[in-house]
Amino acid sequence: MEVTVDHLGAVQFEIHARQHTISCDQPLENGGYDEGMTPPELLLASLGSCAGFYAAQYLRKYKLATEGTRVRVTAEKLQDPARVDNFRIEIDTPLELTDQHRAGVERAVHHCLIHNTLLHPPQMTIEVKQAVATASIGG
Questions:
Q1: d(CA 44, CA 10)
Q2: Residue-by-residue DSSP string for 81-93
Q3: Of 46, 4, 41, which is closest to residue 26 (Cα–Cα)?
Q4: DSSP class of residue 29?
Q5: Which of 6, 48, 59, 64 could bond to 73 as cystine, CB 3.0-4.6 Å?
Q6: Using CA atoms, how far apart are residues 64 and 92, in angstroms rounded to an integer?
Q7: pTM for this predicted structure
């Protein structure tokens, strides 16, 4: 898996994954143009879309309606260190589920790659590289 992120200026970035592109920006009050989601919003979007994928997969498996399924993800910003915490995932299904199917949807969402990554913090390496100026030949 790989994404690249290009700085466009100010606090705007363009994110590329395979043939897809999305924008990342800050709200006006943070010096941005509000033309894209912020990084924390992208994190919530990633978690919510992953949870939604697994919820819909479960519903489809049992031939239950999937159209209209909605996932809402909320979290709080905390400090020391700055981070996002206290995530809450709410899944609204287009039909009333039995207790068995409600538990099944919840079990399915526990298979979400992003959910499991956040529950088991990954190892992370940061490497800062700088462009090397090439010497001109013949001056």
A1: 23
A2: TTEEEEEEEEEE-
A3: 41
A4: G
A5: 48
A6: 13
A7: 0.89
DSSP 3-state percent helix, strand, coil across the chain (nearest 5)? 30, 25, 40
For position 68, what pLDDT does the model report?
94
> How many CA atoms lie less than 13 Å away from 77 in the CB half-sphere?
5
In angstroms, the CA 50 to CA 44 distance is 10
Contacts of 66 (CB under 8 A, 6+ apart): 56, 59, 60, 94
pLDDT at 27: 97
Cβ burial, residue 48 (10 Å; 0-12/13-18/19+): buried
Q: Which CATH superfamily is domain 38-122 in?
A: K homology (KH) domain (3.30.300.20)
The predicted-structure confidence for 60-88, as pLDDT tens digits, reads as follows 999 999 999 999 999 999 999 999 999 99
